[in-house]
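Researcher: Next sequence.
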Amino acid sequence: MFALPTLPVRLDLPLAMFFTAMATACLYVGPSGLPQPADGLIALAVAAMAVTNGFRIQIPRATQPIAVITTAFIGWYTVVQLAWYLDIGQDQPLAFLPAVMRLFNLSVFLTVLGLPVRYGPKILPTIGRLARTILYVLAAVAPVFWVAGGARQTLTFNNPNQLAYYALLLVGIATAASDPRTTTIRTTVTTLLASGALVIASGSRSGLGALAPLVLGVAVLQGRRGLVAAGVALLAAGGAIALGFGETQIDRAIESEQGFARGYDRLVLYPGYLLTGAGDGGLDRFSGMAYQAEIHSTFGQVLMGSGLIGFGLFVWMHLAMIRAGGWPAALSLSPAIVYGITHNGIRTTELWILFAVVTLRAVTAPSPSTTDTAEAPPGPAPSSGLGRASVPSWTVLPGKRDAGGATLG
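Model: Next structure:
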């Protein structure tokens, strides 16, 4: 029923490592919050691409504004973390690890931006097909874990929320990377179903809520085809919940979702950090609070960790992507944005891959399936098929890595 992704791009060792890292990111062997084996593999891929590129960061020119905003955000967050580390954190060996992981994710973001320059424009739909295939495989094995016991499944993750977040990020990547001119109704339905099945398996209400805007958006913007896909996905979700797959999560006490149980009140009780940020870690500074962990929200943790300055850059980065890509970009980002309101996933590598793929699709017209040309044909750029009137065109001649690209550093 599901075809394995073809590879219309040149598969060298760095790209093979990158794809393998995406496929094995679901394998958690260490504690949550620390690097996992896939992170090491993707680090090797990034390093290999950097070496073979002569340590030059080559990205499409049209992506530079978003790349600059993103770099500014990571740079500011790193400065805040370094300031805290030099002040009171030197006796804590892992105090600077969050900054290292953010710099690592920035390198992943910039590397993915440069993939079309290195491998050609067909790399983007190839990434989309890989993301869909991972969803299909995980959804296929999820029933085995259900039979093994427990209403809230983790599969190979450490907790159910990680499974839900991974599924949401992959469906976002698949949506952003897909060429809407060639995406069939079957592909749309199966992708939504696979992601929904994994979210339901995790028993995450927040995950279902985060998936809903994408499903409804597809229904509205893709017309009758989207309505069919959304209808099938919603019926499947309702049926699974009726069978009790999400029962544990749905029946959880409402008070467990309250902000004071997740650290949101830290923003009010410690206003001195709101301008410049408190960095990550150093929770002994908030020893009077019952919730001794990072704020349970991507946006809340960014606000507390990097202050209004960093938070403004983070929001600006999202708005820049949505402004460049229109509704397709907003829909692709919506699962991560909505889930990030109630769960913290800022250091998850797949989130930064999603940011890069959304940025590339926002500034890149879907590439022709038969030929690659150095210039777009005269006249308006083709419609994205998802509600945008037109998008800027950008293609790369095979073998000319600087075509359409810009070098940073």
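Model: Residues 63-366 form one domain. The chain has one domain: 63-366.
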